Structure formats: C-alpha cells, structure tokens
Amino acid sequence: MKFHGLGNDFVVIDRRAGGPVMTAALARALGDRHRGVGFDQLALIDNDESGDVALTFFNTDGSTAGACGNATRCIARHLMDDTGVTSLTLRTERGVLQAVDAGGGLTSVNMGAPLLEWDQIPLARAMDTLHLPIAGDPVATGIGNPHCTFFVDDAEAVDITRFGPEHEHHPLFPERTNVQVAQIVAPDHLRMRVWERGAGLTLASGSSSCAVAVGAARRGLTGRQVRIDLDGGTLHIDWREDGVWMTGPTAHVFTGALTPAFLAALA
C-alpha cells in the first residue's frame, strides 16, 4: 500500500498473514522512485502480543528508523477505517504508541515522552542538549530517533539540501541525525523544514515536528501546543504529561502487488 501524510510518503507492507523478509537491498529497491515504488520510509505491519500491531520502519538507503510519526498515523487511520475502532495501539522501537481518531478525517498519535538526556538521544558525549556546541546553537531531542533543531529567522532562506547533510553526519551524533530549521511565527506557530537521516529532504516529518515543538517549548520560544507548517502541510503538536501528541491528515493512495519479476531480480 502507498500512503502519505502531508506529502511525507510511505510504502506499507502488511505481513500479518505472511509476507516478504525485508532486507536492506529490497528496501532500497522499493524506495527507488524510478525503478521501484518510491517512498520516504517503508513500514512493515506485523502481529504483536502487546499492541494491536507491531511496526518496523526502513529509510530509502536501507537503514532502519526507530520512529516514523506520519507513517504511524497513516497506518493507524487505515486500521481504524478497516476495523471500525476509534483507538488502537501500535508497537514500535519507540514503545507501544496510542492512536485515536481525532475527527474530521484527522488522526492523532502519542509519540511518547521526549528523550532529553545526551545518552538517550544519543550524543557522542555528555553535554547540555538544549544548547549544543555547534554553530547556530541547535537543540538535540530524541523521539525514538535523534533530532538536531536550528531556530532561524527565515526557514526559507536556508539551503536545506546543503545544510541538512552537513549536520546529519556531525560527529556529535554517532547514529546520524534528522535536521530541522524552524522559524518562530508566533508563540503557538512555527514554520519548519526538515532533512531526514537516510532519506534526505522530505515534505513533512512527524517525529521532526514533535522534536521541534519540544525544543521550542524548552527554549521558552513557544507554549506546548503549536501549529507547525511544513513544506507539505500543517501538523498540530501538543506536548502533554503523557507524551507528545501529533495530529494531522493522512491519505491512502493505492494498493498494489509487486511482480514476481521485480522480486526475482533482487534474489
């Protein structure tokens, strides 16, 4: 299945009744927008004993991702529409996440409590995660994967295709990092652009939006409820006592089947 949340697009394979063993090579082939299907992330749905389903995420370069907020929302919406329930739980590397129908075609997911300590994110050594020793004074946040957020005067003025990869591989981030540039529009409104590790420039990112909201609130730049405008649309983030809730639209684009010839070429 192909889904997107604000243009952040995903291939989703439901393996609950059987399916392929996913390899880095197969993920890369599926992610190729010219010779495969194309995606920002790939998600696998499996059975799970502690949640309604278990999710595993891959990037276009074949690496795995610990969290993918927009894909989680897309899959939650698909499962709720399929079963008629209005809430469910999904196990990810991040833990068991709760998703609910927010009404009006919107879906909310609780991405859990943010990780704020250097060794949780992780960073290469002990430091203040609110002020990293990197030019531009970014904030580091963990939302199941590492994030490095720069607050800038004009998000549009940053060449994210150059700025992003320069910082994705910064030595302070041993597992690489997602990179965001965020502009404060109002105390409850931000404009953000994102470079995702292993995927590159994306139109939106759920976990990045959560990280930006947490970083802005920790800096005292905004409150804990914010609207974030991304290249692909708008998400609403609410950092509550029980975790960081993300709300936005989703779209199911198509359902298809991979041909035997495509799969045989990868064997």
Which helices and strands appear, and what pairs or packs with what?
Elements: E1 2-5, E2 8-14, H1 24-31, E3 41-46, E4 53-59, E5 64-65, H2 69-83, E6 87-92, E7 95-103, E8 106-110, E9 139-142, E10 146-151, H3 160-168, E11 178-186, E12 189-196, E13 200-202, H4 206-218, E14 225-230, E15 233-240, E16 243-249, E17 251-254, H5 260-264
In words, what does this structure look like?
By secondary structure, this protein is an alpha+beta fold. The chain has 2 domains: about 1-110 and about 250-265, Roll (Diaminopimelate Epimerase, Chain A, domain 1), CATH 3.10.310.10; about 140-240, Roll (Diaminopimelate Epimerase, Chain A, domain 1). About 20% of the residues lie in helices and about 40% in strands. It is built from 5 helices and 17 strands. The chain has a 17-stranded mixed β-sheet that branches. The longest helix is centred in the N-terminal third of the chain and has 15 residues, at about 70-85. The two termini are about 20 Å apart. The mean pLDDT is about 95.
TL;DR?
The protein has five helices and 17 strands. It is an alpha+beta fold and 267 residues long.
